From TrEMBL:
Position of the signal peptide: 1-26
Keyword annotations: Signal
Protein name per UniProt: Uncharacterized protein
Region (Disordered), start-end ranges: 131-152
Biased composition (Polar residues): 142-152
InterPro entries: TAT_signal
């Protein structure tokens, strides 16, 4: 009995789909951890120092030179507690400053927040368009604060 290529592929896809189904009760916890993705596509550094962005979650990094601009892509990690923040944040640092940036997935507006320390409850919203996910421009202001705006 010959099996068509289409039937074989359909069977493999069906099997893989069944084997990847979440365990019972996982749907509730998975839906609680969903948020819109916030993608940093551009950074404007208005400081007279170079600024490093280091994402703890996957160890990715980039540098923005003093009074300069960077373009690329870095997703902001989701966190909703100090425990999660330990590994799920972006450290933004320069010669005399350090900030931690994360997206609060428990906030209904998917708010991006930052803090000087790993203290979830002390984090403040990034001023500007820091809700709803999407592509963003982050500005490191001359006073060391951050602001955010939507881009294309």
């Amino acid at each position: 009995m010959a099996v068509s290529r289409r039937a074989l592929i359909a069977a493999l896809v069906a099997t893989a789909t069944l084997s990847l189904a979440p365990p019972a009760g996982a749907a509730e916890s998975a839906s609680a951890a969903r948020a819109a993705v916030t993608d940093i596509r551009e950074v404007i550094n208005l400081l007279p120092y170079q600024v490093q962005f280091f994402k703890r979650e996957d160890q990715s990094t980039f540098t923005v030179m003093a009074n300069s601009r960077w373009t690329g892509s870095m997703w902001i990690p989701w966190a909703a507690s100090e425990t999660e923040m330990e590994d799920k944040h972006i450290i933004i640092y320069w010669s005399n400053g350090r900030l931690r940036l994360f997206q609060d997935y428990r906030d209904p507006s998917d708010q991006v927040k930052y803090s000087q320390m790993i203290v979830y409850h002390a984090a403040i919203p990034v001023p500007g368009a820091s809700t709803g996910g999407g592509r963003k421009r982050v500005t490191v202001n001359p006073d060391g604060s951050l602001s955010m705006e939507n881009i294309g």
